[in-house]
Automatic annotation (TrEMBL), chain A:
Species per Swiss-Prot/TrEMBL record: Brevibacillus invocatus
Protein name: Uncharacterized protein
UniProtKB keywords: Membrane, Transmembrane, Transmembrane helix
Superkingdom: Bacteria
TM region positions: 12-30, 42-60, 66-83, 95-117
TrEMBL record, chain B:
Tagged with keyword Transmembrane: yes
Organism: Brevibacillus invocatus
Keyword Transmembrane: yes
Protein name, as recorded: Uncharacterized protein
Keywords linked to the UniProt accession: Membrane, Transmembrane, Transmembrane helix
Transmembrane segments: 7-25
Length: 240, 238
């Protein structure tokens, strides 16, 4: 059970792309090895690759994700100094060290591919991507203005695909809540939290799901952004 | 000769692992007597001037809370942990205002409020709070609204003015969900905090003068979080 829930929380696309990247590197190393006349000891090749991988890189923010762009081949330089004066040996190892540095670009490219692919497979504006398994869902009250109500799973499931995304008026919500009443009589606009749901398998998305006081609004809070959805009917029952 | 050496080495490894196991994973022995506790408290932190042990509260197999009264008539707390085959004092507070003791790092289900209120402060109840302030943020075209989280748990005092309490279930549920999203952020932060409000017999908020501003000893590895005294006015009661 533990393992299954862990897997369901990992970003499967990212994982697959990393594995793919390594397969390409291994394949390239194998081709180099076959072409060489003076062959190095096999166990030294991974070592050269890993040291070669070591580089100075620049962090770039792209589509809300930080990607690493390699700049300086530090690992290759280190190996160059290690093999200084042993020119023949360096000749056999050099290409693997550089392949290690090139691997940085392979991973960089795989990240560039992962981001749009992830967006296509898990559309970021679909509620059903964030709330996919409703079986064990329930709500908890996170503010005293919440009433004693419970989740209507039937209503939630029925409306998952039809809820409309709407704009977040963050400052307006904040100011309305603050101004309408004296300081200690305030109602929270989102006094409930939906728990026990999980995001779509393999998406690796983590979300806090707040529910609006009228039961018709869902505020999703992910590490990168917030999304707001409205439904026709309330997804809660009881209370009032 | 070599065969002998291998045998010897194997035996050594087995012996070592038994010793390590016995040292780190053995189940705790019986807890020290009250006299031993007083002696140890005063040896480690003479300022504690412990004189009476009020109780020993076992929180789990390896963590025990010991409220005590000092010679100056202060009500203090000592935190005992089973480590390296010994019951050790992890921390001492000379006054017992509530504090959050985190037994196991980031796992909210291992968080306990602990307190030892001076009876002269005449509290009749404590309200504990878990709060995240309401807020909003607009940056780079991305709008965020943070709903206020305010969860409450009331403790009323009958005969004992000391005790411990695990975080309520719904607090744990909320914190787990919150921490999961927070830790997936590129720059994780934490805006949750814990608070408490003391009430007297007439249900008025009072300031528990004799239970706050104590001094303390801590061996460094003990994980506690400060619990702030809140004002009744800061609490939303719709």
């Amino acid at each position: 059970m533990e393992i299954i829930s862990n897997v369901s929380n990992t970003n499967v696309i990212e994982m697959v792309m990393i594995i793919l990247g390594w397969l390409i590197i291994v394949f390239l190393a194998y081709r180099m090895y076959r072409k060489q006349i003076v062959k190095p000891k096999v166990w030294t090749i991974p070592l050269m690759l890993i040291v070669g991988l070591f580089s100075l890189s620049m962090n770039l923010k792209m589509l809300e994700t930080i990607v690493k762009v390699p700049i300086l081949p530090l690992g290759v330089w280190i190996l160059y100094f290690v093999f200084k004066g042993k020119n023949e040996k360096w000749q056999t190892y050099r290409s693997y060290a550089w392949l290690g540095f090139v691997a940085n670009f392979i991973f960089f490219a795989s990240t560039l591919l992962t981001i749009p692919l992830h967006h296509v497979i898990y559309p970021k504006d679909k509620l059903s991507v964030y709330i996919s398994n409703v079986e064990n869902a329930s709500i908890i009250n996170i503010h005293p203005s919440a009433k004693d109500r419970s989740l209507s799973k039937v209503s939630l499931i029925k409306q998952l695909d039809t809820m409309r995304q709407e704009a977040i008026y963050s400052d307006q919500w904040y100011n309305e809540t603050l101004m309408n009443t004296e300081s200690n009589k305030r109602n929270e606009r989102f006094p409930y939290l939906l728990i026990g749901t999980s995001s779509k398998w393999g998406s690796g998305l983590h979300t806090l799901v707040y529910i609006e006081d009228d039961g018709k609004g869902i505020l999703l809070s992910t590490p990168k952004r917030e999304l707001y959805f409205r439904s026709q009917d309330s997804i809660m029952e009881g209370g009032e | 000769m070599t065969k002998k050496k291998i045998w010897f080495l194997g035996l050594l490894i087995i012996m070592l692992s038994i010793i390590v196991y016995w040292f780190y994973f053995s189940t705790p022995t019986s807890f020290p007597t009250n006299e031993q506790l007083v002696e140890e408290l005063n040896r480690i932190f003479p300022k504690a001037t412990a004189s009476i042990i009020q109780d020993t509260i076992s929180i789990d197999e390896r963590h025990v809370l010991v409220p005590f009264i000092s010679k100056k008539d202060d009500y203090g707390l000592s935190y005992w942990v089973w480590k390296n085959r010994k019951w050790q004092v992890a921390s001492i507070d000379t006054k017992g205002e509530p504090i959050l003791w985190k037994l196991n790092g980031n796992d909210p289900s291992s968080f306990y409020f602990v307190w030892n209120i001076n009876p002269k402060d005449q509290l009749s109840s404590i309200h504990f709070y878990l709060i995240r302030d309401r807020g909003y943020r607009i940056a780079e075209g991305i709008e965020r609204y943070y709903p206020r989280v305010q969860m409450e748990k009331r403790i009323s005092f009958q005969e004992k003015s000391y005790g411990s309490m695990q975080l309520p279930d719904d607090w744990i549920t909320f914190m787990n969900a919150y921490l999961e999203v927070e830790s997936a952020k590129q720059s994780p932060g934490r805006n949750l905090f814990f608070g408490w409000i003391p009430y007297d017999l007439t249900n008025q908020q009072i300031f528990p003068e004799r239970s706050v501003n104590g001094s303390g000893y801590s061996e460094g590895k003990v994980d506690v979080e400060y619990v702030m005294i809140l004002n009744k006015g800061e609490i939303e009661i719709p």
